[in-house]
Design goal:
Layout lengths: L1 E3 L10 E8 L5 E3 L2 E5 L4 E7 L2 E3 L2 E6 L3 E3 L8 E3 L2 E6 L12 E5 L5 E3 L2 E5 L2 E5 L23 E10 L2 E9 L15 E9 L3 E8 L2 E4 L2 E3 L4 E8 L13 E4 L2 E3 L15 E5 L5 E4 L2 E3 L7 E5 L6 E6 L2 E3 L13 E5 L3
């Protein structure tokens, strides 16, 4: 499909699954090319168990692979390539800061996809309190729904972040609005490079980044803003927030960004207690502009625990703005 999608007109998308209900894995969007769209690419609206795979989209205005109201579950988006997803001021407010993959309910599968070049985000998990639009249901709280799957995705050259979890996500075991036992949401195996930030969460509970590879991102490999515990879950992987088995690379000179370039901070710690950084490597944080560890910039203090940490050619192990700004607890020596 070429030269498609009508700007200024709601619902005029190249491919639009509109209020289809459960399609029971019998329907799919497979092997399509969508080039030069003025209004998104594939929109999934109150449709469940749809397969979207092996599609290539290029030069798309607004959120590209777009899960709409937040009621949608069980959809599988895999092996898709999104190239140059860009801002639009002729659609909705959401499309002013678009994502190649816009996810409003975490109970979907996002795996083996690539987002290459864009004005804002590669992957954005944006959950409201309840589904909105014609799907409004006060008994569904998607901020508390367990994660379906986020696995083996790649993102680079985004104007803002590779992966953004904004504004809140507090995954609970049953996913009900009242349940309070955490079910850790493990975002696994993201490769993210040449973005402003590789990945960031804002207000979360038991959210964990595992097997992340962050290279040559400008401001941070991973930034954590807040950890807001909805349940007394303590530290660690059973119910806490963490970065695990990951690698943060300050600079790779072969990419030609100059001798002074370096990711400012490998991991930026949140403003609250409760974060663990486990079995993570920091590589090439050896220039004056960068350090492996930093702290989110707002007046306050926090505590973070570390184990299995390794530094390679990284004499700048951490950076503090004042004495006692943060307590870093090395749990294994």
């Amino acid at each position: 499909l070429f030269n498609v999608g009508q700007a200024f007109r709601l619902g005029r998308y190249p491919i639009h699954w509109h209020l289809m209900g459960d399609v029971k894995f019998k329907s799919y969007v497979r092997g399509c090319g969508i080039h030069q769209s003025y209004n998104r690419a594939v929109t999934i609206h109150n449709t469940h168990n749809l397969l979207v795979e092996r599609n290539v989209i290029y030069n798309i205005m607004g959120g590209a692979f777009f899960i709409e109201d937040g009621i949608e579950t069980g959809n599988i988006l895999q092996y898709n390539l999104a190239v140059f997803v860009k801002q639009s001021t002729s659609l909705l407010n959401d499309d002013v800061t678009p994502a190649a993959f816009w996810v409003t309910n975490p109970n979907n599968t996002i795996r083996h996809n690539a987002a290459a070049g864009g004005t804002h985000f590669g992957f954005w998990y944006r959950m409201h309190d309840n589904p909105d639009g014609p799907s409004y249901n006060p008994n569904i709280c998607q901020k508390r729904v367990p994660l379906g799957q986020f696995f083996n995705n790649t993102v680079h050259s985004q104007g803002w972040f590779g992966l953004w979890i904004f504004q809140e996500y507090f995954p609970m075991r049953s996913g009900s609005c009242s349940y309070s036992t955490p079910a850790p949401a493990v975002f696994r195996r993201l490769t993210s490079w040449n973005n402003e930030k590789g990945a960031e969460w804002v207000n979360v509970g038991a959210v964990q980044f595992s097997e992340f590879l962050m290279v040559n991102n400008e401001k941070a490999g991973v930034e954590a803003k807040r950890i807001i515990q909805q349940h007394v879950s303590g530290w660690g992987l059973d119910g806490g927030a963490a970065v695990v088995n990951s690698t943060m690379v300050g600079h790779v000179d072969e990419l030609g960004l100059g001798s002074n370039y370096c990711t400012a901070r490998g991991v930026i710690l949140p403003l609250d207690d409760g974060m663990s950084v486990i079995n993570t490597k920091f590589v090439n944080f050896d220039r004056s502009s960068c350090a492996a560890i930093g702290v989110a910039e707002i007046v306050g203090t926090c505590i973070a625990r570390f184990s299995g940490i390794q530094y390679y050619q990284s004499p700048n192990k951490a950076w503090f703005r004042w004495e006692h700004e943060v307590a870093l607890v090395d749990t294994d020596g």
